[in-house]
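pls ignore typos typing on phone
6-O-phosphono-beta-D-fructofuranose + seq
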Amino acid sequence: MRIGVLTGGGDCPGLNAVIRAVVRKGAEVYGHEFVGFRDGWKGPLEGVTMPLDVPAVRGILPRGGTILGSSRTNPLKVEGGVARIRENLEALGVDALVAIGGEDTLGVATALADQGLNVVGVPKTIDNDLNATDYTFGFDTAVQIAVDAIDRLHTTAESHHRALIVEVMGRHAGWIALHSGLAGGANVILIPERPFDIDQVCEYVKQRFERHYAPIIVVAEGATPAEGTMAMQEGELDAFGHVRLGGIGQVLEREIEARTGYESRQTVLGHVQRGGTPTAYDRILATRFGLHAIDAVHEGDSGVMVALQGADIVRVPLSAATKELKLVPLDRYKEAEVFFG
Ligand code: F6P
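k done
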């Protein structure tokens, strides 16, 4: 078989580990050939490829990013996009695709599989918000990066008696904020699933100072104030219709300082959370996903995604992963609330 591989959406530590596992097992165990598609769905849409064989994947296990490149190109928004992909795959002699991506990339994979193309998905996102899998690779690395930052911010916050706000990624789901906030001993955690009350946040900040400690507030970029409590700016949209976020840390910095009188500063971790080498956990999860994805392709399965359930890698319908996002349940958030203030 000749199999195409692509990585789409925001990059994520562990992508190269998946590519390596797919190619190593696919070539060495099953004798398949591979075509690397460049920059997400742009590759199959425009027929942009790169060689992908065992020598091409040597040494990439610990490397962040993706050797294939990524983009947020949405072929479903391009006129005749699906037909062009089909033509390009036929011209290249590609029998099946392994699509490694998050909700958007796998949403396209679902549509293509519905139209008869052979596609197997691998779930990827630092946000950990894909349904049907307990964890996505990249999440553990992002949380570890955020925790390292929070540990450092504690000491400088104490020295200067400041409230420090750490803005982490998480557009719709607050998993990174929740986990990094819990592991980093944050005094307030704000997530998109739970609109916050700025007066309550300021109360926690004051309480913390009264106990002679400096507060750390971890906020997900998608967190919003409860309706009617604080004005927010609108952002621009990407090809999948997502608002470009960022800025809630700055808003909190201003509001907390104005309302409590304590000096406040924000740190936006941004794309640092997506860069660099994956943790051992993410390397292993990504590798196992890759091994099971190539098994699925080899067995002629399509329209499925590999997923972690407990300790096992299973196959689920692609649609199960993308139907709705996996958000932080309220009771999980409540566990963390014990440590607020
Ligand atoms: O989906 C992963 C993610 O890192 C989100 O947490 C974040 O909102 C988004 O990507 C940022 O996207 P971009 O790299 O396009 O700024």
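Residues 98 and 161 are 51 Å apart (CA to CA). The mean pLDDT is 95. more later
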